[in-house]
TrEMBL record:
UniProt similarity note: Belongs to the acetokinase family.
Protein name per the record: Probable butyrate kinase
Tree of life domain: Bacteria
Catalytic reactions on record: butanoate + ATP = butanoyl phosphate + ADP
Protein's cellular compartments: Cytoplasm
NCBIfam families (UniProt xref): butyr_kinase, PRK03011.1-5
The keyword Iron appears for this protein: no
Top enzyme class: transferase
């Protein structure tokens, strides 16, 4: 059996999930929580990389992981220039773009930066990312907006979308490339994508654009009101961007980053939580419905609902009731991000995947 180890990383706002794999066996799995006081004082998410990397290294060492055996460090890919789906070696330009927030400031940028920082501390490791949030397979028609200077960008949870869609295809003994699917990832961000024969030809711009509001993002807003707020003199540009991308949605209503907490409030009888969650489900359902014409009259073979909030049966039921006439609905609760990264890691080790250059 190969001694080589894969270290997979999924940095989130308040924690970092890490796992170590030897082939298909999980050797180590940990959710490292970061206390609010540890995260205070950093100007951007990218600046947290050295601090989080040190904690991860200490965690691996104290759990007797054979550091010299780690040859692949692979993280979720961040906000970068548009790229094709697949595995990328982390290079200098990628690190510059991620650390400089060239395409936006989000915790997901830490995926590539942590991979690079950790690989540089290990004697035999190379850093990678896979299916970053900027995988771009949009049809040209989906890019055009009502202002020639603005193009719709492809920003969605590509890793979970592709993994869930392939898993669904396998479950019905079909190839992903032969199916038309609508995938809804319900996580911290919410992305709804039209997967036509293996390509995501349309999606909401799930970071700073349109679509349903999510646990942390505002989604589509009445744009005139937003423009007036921008010019009110009350907020800086960074504050306005943060309201859209990290402090909108359920956070703006309830002051928590956790969709789980708001579901618990609803279950405990909180009327406002029930109303806002129902509105979120309503917006998700409308966005799923909006993908139907994208297939140009072809049948939709399935709607896949995935991500952390797909674990909440009440929330999922409210979406399902509104969309199940379009196509059969398959629920895949939770997002298997670390597992998906380890699959890519194994493909790297077996030389079964092209390593793309950013
Ligand atoms: N059992 C659950 N019920 C409702 N929401 C949940 C549950 N478990 C996790 N969540 C929420 O899912 C969101 C995270 O989704 P996830 O797909 O894991 O991550 P990501 O933010 O990367 O998309 C968080 O808002 C979290 O609180
Ligand atoms: C960064 C855009 C994609 C997205 O929203 O992902 P998360 O659900 O992981 O926040």
């Amino acid at each position: 059996m190969s001694r080589e180890l894969i270290l997979a990383l999924n940095p989130r706002m308040q924690f970092t999930r890490i796992a170590v794999y030897r082939m298909n066996t999980t050797v180590f799995l940990k959710k490292i929580n970061h206390k609010p006081e540890e995260l205070e004082g950093f100007k951007s998410f990218a600046d947290q990389a050295p601090m989080r990397a040190k904690i991860i290294l200490d965690e691996l060492k104290s759990n007797d992981i054979q550091m010299d055996d780690i040859t692949v460090v692979i993280g979720r890919g961040g906000l970068l220039k548009p790229v094709r789906s697949g595995v990328y070696k982390v290079n200098e330009q990628m690190c510059e773009h991620l650390s400089g927030n060239e395409y936006g400031d989000d915790v997901v940028n830490l995926g590539g930066l942590l991979s690079q920082t950790l690989a540089s501390e290990l004697s035999n490791a190379q850093a990678y990312i896979a299916d970053p949030v900027v995988v771009d397979e949009l049809d040209d028609i989906a890019r055009i907006t009502g202002r020639p200077e603005y193009k719709k960008k492809s920003i969605f949870h590509a890793l979970d979308h592709k993994t869930s869609a392939r898993k669904f295809a396998q479950s019905i003994y079909k190839k992903y490339e032969d199916l038309n699917l609508i995938v809804a990832h319900l996580g911290g961000g919410i992305s709804i994508g039209a997967h036509k024969k293996g390509k995501v030809i349309d999606s909401n711009q799930a970071y700073d654009g349109d679509g349903p509001f999510s646990p942390i993002r505002s989604g589509s807003l009445p744009i005139g009101d937003v423009i007036r707020e921008c010019y009110s003199g009350k907020y800086t540009q960074d504050e306005m961007l943060s309201k859209q991308t990290g402090k909108g949605g359920l956070f703006a209503h309830f002051n928590t980053y956790s969709g789980y907490d708001v579901c618990k409030m609803r279950d405990a009888g909180d009327q406002k939580a029930a109303e806002v969650l129902s509105a979120m489900a309503y917006q998700v359902a409308k966005s799923i419905g909006a993908m139907y014409p994208v297939f140009g009259g072809e049948d939709v073979d399935g709607i896949i609902i995935t991500g952390g909030m797909a674990k909440d049966e009440h929330f999922v039921r409210e979406i399902k009731e509104r969309v199940e006439k379009i196509a059969p609905v398959s629920i895949q609760p939770g997002a298997e991000v670390l597992g998906a990264l380890s699959d890519y890691g194994n493909m790297i080790l077996r030389k079964e995947t092209e390593i793309l250059e950013y």
